[in-house]
Amino acid sequence: MKITKYIHSCLLLEQDGEQLLFDPGTFTFADGTVTPATFRNVSTVVITHQHPDHLDVQALQEIVRLSRATVLSTQEVADQLKPQGLPVQVVEEGLLTVGAFWLEAVPVPHEPILDSELPQMLAFFINDKVLNPADSFSPILQRYKRVEVLILPVMAPFLTEVRVAEFVRQLEPQQILPVHDGYVKDFFVEQRYDTYEPHFAQQGIQFHRLSQPGQSVTV
């Protein structure tokens, strides 16, 4: 499986000629480096929750128009997108097959945010090897301890380096792919990676420095 990062939490997964896209949000398209046309060949788009940094409605409309992809998400997102004419296959919990991908959807709580109502949100375990927790560090996710690849939010208003490191200590993944860092300058992303990479290396965990849009790993 090839995983390509396109700014913040937007990830393109490719397996056996199929493309699965996670969370094309506003930060992904903010400076024009990435456009909806980048995703014209996707078969399915998964939106983990309705926050704008994970869901850019205008961009999603264009992606679906170009690709005719199916959109999977929560009932909350489906209700939001219905007036826009975007049909959503509502996912609540459990296993589903999407082409070459096997997904386990897990309802999880969003990490606390100041003065904000928390959205419905889904984490996904993909092909028995990749865990995308969305914006959750819930103990629910400890069932995936020693997962091969952890998609790891590394920066957010609701996070500290210590909180990130503790979540990794609990899950003990083999590899980390950092996300949720698309709203800060490149030099700060690199500085933060300079902190995380040796810290996790001491635990025998590989940290993939995907700091530029279009960089990828194969797992």
From TrEMBL:
It comes from the Bacteria. Signal peptide: none annotated. PANTHER family: UPF0173 METAL-DEPENDENT HYDROLASE MJ1163, UPF0173 METAL-DEPENDENT HYDROLASE MJ1163-RELATED. This is MBL fold metallo-hydrolase. It comes from Hymenobacter citatus.
